[in-house]
Amino acid sequence: MGVYKLMVEANLKNRFSRLRGQLDGLEGMLTNSRNCEDVLIQLSAIKAALNQLGVLILQKETNCLKLKDADKKKLETLLNRFVKS
């Protein structure tokens, strides 16, 4: 396994762990009746973490494609739109 692939796999595992921690934190907040603002901030963090994880997975999966430069540019544009949505 190449160094790049190992780094990507480690990054994915880290992001999954972080996301699990954020979800556990949200569950605790709801169980302990934390205030609405704190819950919304946590939800926003979870959404951002999930988006980042999705982009990383898409990048990992699309790196193996043999694309022409123009198609790579289109794909990059689509990924950027995905991140911003």
Automatic annotation (TrEMBL):
| Pfam families named in the record | Trns_repr_metal
Q: Cross-referenced InterPro entries, in alphabetical order?
A: Metal_Tscrpt_repr, Metal_Tscrpt_repr_sf
- Recorded GO MF terms: DNA binding; metal ion binding
> Biological process GO annotation list?
negative regulation of DNA-templated transcription
User: This chain belongs to which protein, by name?
Assistant: Transcriptional regulator
